[in-house]
Amino acid sequence: MSALRELSVSEINEVSGGCGRYDSQCGISIGASFGCGSANYASYYSTQLGAYSGYLAGVYNVFADLAQSASNSVIAADIKNIASYVQLGAQIGAQSATNGLAIYKSVVSAISTSIANGGTKITFPPAVG
Length: 129
Description:
This protein has 4 helices and 2 strands; from the N terminus they run αββααα. It is mainly alpha-helical. It is extended.
């Protein structure tokens, strides 16, 4: 087994999504003080939240169709839609630092409404408002 080694600044940036810095007294560290700008973090997390919202909507639709005893082809189409929902959600989230949260709230609201109405499929992206 090889010995462990310290990661370089470029390796830290690669695995952390950026914002690694070198401190001559402490060595390499990842900035928790939002040293690269809080806008970068907000945009990153908005994109991630948008992508998760797409995933949540897609998986919900699969289970909604399973509960409604849909055909195998409909369920297979729902499963294929998950990837496109994730991609679309990430694109929506990347447009603005607040879009990720807005789309997530809309998906949760649409799921709640769907459950109250018998568990029908939801559309993605739902109306944001």
